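Why run this: before we spend reagent on co-expression, it is cheaper to look at a predicted model of the complex and decide which construct boundaries make sense. The entries below are exactly what would go into the expression plan.
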Amino acid sequence: ETGVTQSPTHLIKTRGQQVTLRCSSQSGHNTVSWYQQALGQGPQFIFQYYREEENGRGNFPPRFSGLQFPNYSSELNVNALELDDSALYLCASSPAGTSGRKTQYFGPGTRLLVL
Amino acid sequence: GDSVTQMEGPVTLSEEAFLTINCTYTATGYPSLFWYVQYPGEGLQLLLKATKADDKGSNKGFEATYRKETTSFHLEKGSVQVSDSAVYFCALYNNAGNMLTFGGGTRLMVKP
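The model came back. Tokens follow.
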């Protein structure tokens, strides 16, 4: 059984650019959540996708957007990058159902550096 | 809103010592509680969970009991190993927000 995978592993961008991060969910999982983890801190919830629609959003501006595809994979897009966007971006998938959705399994993350 | 508070680290122990990492939470309703572990340069691994009051989660020698009366979910292990050195995160899931809320993490360092 393949776990959650993310690409790329590392990325360097400059301020003002746009970036797309990708996530493939674990087999049998239909819900994907994204988190931002700044250095030395706990992850912060960005948003969750279920059945290709946003299903909850944290306190992040609209320049953070996402997509979920029919195969349950997902993208996180960030426009107009700022220096403070430098962080580890974590994707997590969870099984179907209200109960299953509580338990989230994380990928290895994409480390983004904004210069 | 929901919040999770963990003891600040680093926690430094000798191999085979007893481990406790404190975690308390504030939440509306009846959240599910989790411990995740993060090794250097990696993502988060689910360590254990508990979904209702008085449940005990356990895995790889680690245990934590969901105490609703004290709003706590302390992580314990009877005998730590060098390989347990990592950052440990306590988290809660509240259905209202469809999200995990994490504590700030506690770094554990185990010396031989």
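The longest strand of chain A covers residues 29-37. The two ends of chain A are 37 Å apart (CA to CA). Bring this page to Monday's planning discussion.
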